[in-house]
Amino acid sequence: MGKLGGFLEIPREEQAKRPVEDRVKDWKELYQPFTDEYLLKQSARCMDCGIPFCHFSCPVSNNIPEFNDFAHRGEWEKALRILESTNNFPEFTGRVCPAPCEGGCVLGINDKPITIKNIEWNVAEKGFENGWIKPMPPKSRTDKKVAVIGAGHAGCEAAAAAANMGSKTCLITMDMNKVAQMSCNPAVGGIAKGQIVREIDALGGYMGLVTDKTAIQFRILNRSKGPAMWSPRAQCDRNKFIWTWREILENIPNLSIWQDTVKEIIVENGEITGLKTFWDVTFHAKCVVITTGTFLNGMMHVGKTQLAGGRMAEPPSLQLTESITKFGIRSGRMKTGTPVRIDGRSVNFQLMATQDGENDHHKFSFMNTSLRHLKQLQCWTCYTNEEVHRVLREGLNESPLYNGQIQSIGPRYCPSIETKIVTFPDKNQHQLFLEPEGETTQELYLNGFSSSLPMDIQIQALRKIPAFSNIEIYRPGYAIEYDYFDPTQLKHSLESKIIKNLFFAGQVNGTTGYEEAGGQGLIAGINAHINCHGGEPFTLARDEAYIGVLIDDLVTKGVDEPYRMFTSRAEYRILLRMDDADMRLTEKGWKLGLVKADRYELYRNKKDIVNEIINFTRTYSIKPSLINETLESYNTAPLKHGCKLIDLINRPQITIENIALHIPSFKRVLDEIKDSRKEEIIEAAEIQIKYEGYIARERMIAAKLSRLESIKIKGKFNYTDIQSLSTEARQKLIKIDPETIAQASRIPGVSPSDINVLLVLSGR
User: Fold this and answer.
1) What is the pTM of this model?
2) In terms of CB atoms within 10 Å, which of 145, 250, 430, 761 comes out highest?
3) Does the 710-761 domain belong in CATH 1.10.150.570?
C-alpha cells in the first residue's frame, strides 16, 4: 500500500493552519487549502504492514490501507468509494473523529503515524469538489419526534413501532445493557399471554421473533382443550434475550437510544412538548410514551429491610411521578414480587420430576424462521410440604405483607408463597417449578416461591424441601412497590385524556406481565406516530385481539390490582385463537406501514393455501365403498351414503393428514405445498374446518354487539343531570366518559336499565 518504502523517505506533515491573525477575522476554514502534492506524499507513507491495526482501531472499520493506496495513485473517486463502503459520512468523521486509527498505525511504533484523518477529510473534499458527494437535504423539516421513556418490553415495542413507521424516535433508558430485561421469570407466553405475543408478531412487532431466537424450552399449554385455549410458552435465555433485542433496536432506522433518567415532562397549554433528564438534557418531542415499569418511586422489601430501587441493584426513577400528577393525572401504588434465584450446583435434581419441552413445528413468530436456535433444556418440579409451611407461618410477623410495611395490592394470580399459605390454609403442599435462566448459566428461577420474607426465613423454608436441603442462593426473593397511573384516564389509543400526545404503556397502567406490556407498547408506539403525522387512532376491538380486550378492560374498568390477561377475560375466545393472529391482524399492520413486504407476502401465501385446502374439502365427494374400511380403522362410524370430504374432517378421530393418506388426490394437494411452514398451514386449515360452525356463531354475536360500538356518546350527555340513571352509573359514567354505548355497557356498575336510558336519549 502506498509507496514501497515511502515511510522511510517522507516525514509526517500536518496540514498547515491559516495564520492566527487571519483566522480571527472570519469563520472560514481553520486549515490552509490542501494540495494534491500533500495528499500524494502523506498517503505514500502507508506501508504494507501485513496486519492493518488501523482498520481494527477504526470505530466504523474504514478500509484505511485501501483508500490510502488509491489516494497515493491520485484515483480520488475510487478512494472515496472505498471510504463510503463502510462509512456513510466520511466528510464528518474526517473532521471530528479523534482518529484512534492513527493510534493503531504500526508506523507509530518507532515513528509518527500516517496522517489518516487529514487524508480521509481531503478525499471527501475532493468528492464535493468533483460532484461525487452531493448534499441531499430533506424535502421537508419537521419537529415531529417521538420520545419513549423506559426500555422494558413496552418501551422497546413502542420505540420500534414508531421508528419503523417513519417517526424520528428516541428511546431513553437508565441502562442500555438492560433493555427488555426479564425482571422476573425469563419466560414469554402462557395462557392468553402467548396469544398476545403472536398478535404483536402479526402486527410487525418483535417480541415473538426475539423469543424464538432465545428460547431454551418451548411448550403449548392447554393441549387437552380446544384450539381456542392453546397457548404457546417459552423459557428463554435471559441475557441472550436482552442482547437480541438490543441488536434489533440499534439497527432500526429513525431510532436512537439515550442512556439517562427522566425527571420531568414539559407541558404547554395542555400538550406535551418534551422532557428533562437528570443529566440536564432537554428533549423536545411531539409525542412522549411513558413505559417506566416498576421504577417510579420503586421500593424493594426483604423482611424489614427496605431499599429504594426499580429492580434489584438498579436505582428508582424519582420526581417523574410528581411531574405528571401535578397536571391532574391520578396515580396509585401497586406491588409485585419475584422469587429467590438458586445456584443449580446445590440442587439434588434426582429428587425432582422433570418437565421437558416440545420440538414440533410450533413457535411464536409467523415468519419462516428456523424453529430452535439454542440448546433445548428441561425444567423440574417439586412441592412444598408441611415443614416448609410451618417455617413460613412462624415468620409471618416479619413479612412486609402482613406487618403493615406494604400497603399496596399485589397480583391476585401470582401470589407470594406466604400469601398462598394464608389464603389456602387447608393445602399441605404447593407446586414449584425450577427453571433455567439460560443456556449455560447455573442460575435457576424457582417459579411459585415469590416472597418478601427475611432472607434467613426464605432459606430455612427452602431447605425443608428434600431437593433443596443443601440449597445455596444467588439472591433472595423480594417484593417491590411502585407508582402506576389510573388507566381510566386514557383513550383506547393509550393517549392521556388530560395531556395531549402523552401516552402510557405497560406496568404504569396497572398491568403485570411482559406480554401485556409489549402489546400496550406496540399500540402506544403506533398511535404516537399517527399523532405526529396525522390520521385516525389505531385501536383493536374485543373481537379482533386479546390486545383489544386488555386495553378496553384497562380504560373502561380500571384496575384495583395488577391486571393479568386470561382467556376467560375474552368473550370471543374462538375468534382470538393463537393460530390465526396473522389472519386477524397482518392486513391491518400492512395498511399501517408497520408490516413489511416479506411478512405480508408470507401472510398472503398462507391465506391462499389455507383457502385452497378448505375449498378442496368442500367440493371433493367421498363414496362409502372407498373409505369405510379406513374409517373403521380410525374407530369412527362408516358412511351410509356419500358425503363431502369436509364432513369427514369434522369428525374428532379424523385429521387432514391421516385422511390424506387414503385419498391420493387430496394428498397431492398437500404435497404441492412448498412453504417451509407446511405443518402450520395445514393446522390452520384444519382448525377452520373443525370449528367453522362455532367461529361463524361467534362472529354473528360479535357483529350484533358491534352495532352498539357505532353509537358514539362521548361529550353528548351531562350525566349529572340524568336523574333516571342510578347514582353509581352516573358516578362511573362521569369518571370514564365512554366513547360508545358498547363501552358504557362494560363499565362495572352500569346496569342494562342504565344502558336503555342512554339508548332512548340517543334516539335509538
Assistant:
1) 0.80
2) 145
3) yes
